[in-house]
Amino acid sequence: MGLFDNFLEVFLKLTDPTPGFSPERCLLERYSVGGCSACADACPHDAVRLESYTVEIEETACTGCGLCVGVCPGTALEFPFGPVQEALTKGRGQLKCSRAEGGGEEVLCLGRLTPGLLAEAGSRLGPLTLARGRCETCRIGGPGVPEHLERMIAEARRYYPPLEVRVTTEALPGPRLARRELFTGWLGMAKRVAAEALPEPPPELLPAEGEALPAELRLRRLAAERAPEVRWPGIAVNEGCTLCPVCENVCPTAAIHRVHEEDEVVLTLELERCTGCNACLESCPPQVIEARDYGKDDLRASPLELYRGSSAF
């Protein structure tokens, strides 16, 4: 690897920090039965540590490939989506990784593409073309990226079934930028990333609890609104439910709620918040919860009533 390539890798690393972590959406932090190791299992560089019921990322080992973000069932790990959406828009649905040949818009690694990003871009831009480099020798994402990308595409089709994606190793059309132009572009990207990496606003300026969807779920919802039909993951609650608070407590995205109505307790589901993580299924004491898919009419009717009755809790 030459000096310029080494500089490129270091620069991309500096302008693509490790993913942000929202502990309240982590299954480990919520003490879900069975826990979760999806992020650590997906990381090709052993940069993720699961200790003391939380997630820690070693910045020196993380390459910013994004594989952990796409597999996180609670959307607890996330990168700013703005730069990727901007690249997809500028490229009119064509995007390449930083190691792929040819011209056009690029992202550090195609592992950065989540189901929400893919579904929303496909619903807005039409067929997508994604060009990858030689993943088997890449030090950013590694050989697992193509399979991971196929999983993300399959998941994206839940929210936008007409999604068309072509993954290729061929060079995308368009002029390849000169080094000076590349450097200028990287500086602009660094400014955008730095702006997005500013500290969170104080609590009093944040939306009230229950108002704001995580960015990934907002993208999925946008795509679903443009789709003729969807297969949104959700749950059903069968007879035998004790209306205890366990499912509500372990849900990483606040999709499940117990509402008191006079002498009854009603269990409801905000469908647009459900990721199909199965934390409630695994943790339910009487094991009366099952997974099921919901359609677009159900999504519009959300919140859905799951169960109603009296409760000793």
Can you count the beta strands? 13
Radius of gyration: 21 Å
Q: Determine the number of helices (DSSP H or I, runs of at least 4 residues).
A: 11
> Largest sheet, if any?
4 strands, parallel
How far apart the termini lie comes to 63 Å
Helix content: 25-40%
Low-pLDDT regions = 178-210
Strands across the major sheet, in which order?
6-5-7-8
What is the residue-averaged pLDDT? 87
Q: Can you write the helix and strand succession as a string?
A: HEHEEHEHEEHEHEHHEHEEHEHE
Q: Shape, please? A: globular
| Beta fraction | 15-25%
Q: What structural class should be given to the helix and strand makeup?
A: alpha/beta
Describe the structure in your own words.
The chain contains 11 helices and 13 strands. By secondary structure, it is an alpha/beta fold. Among the domains are: 3-16 and 79-203, no CATH class; 231-309, Alpha-Beta Plaits. The protein has a 4-stranded parallel β-sheet with strand order 6-5-7-8. Helix 5 runs parallel beside helix 8 (215-226). The longest helix has 18 residues, at 179-196. The protein is globular. Mean pLDDT is 87; it is low at 178-210.
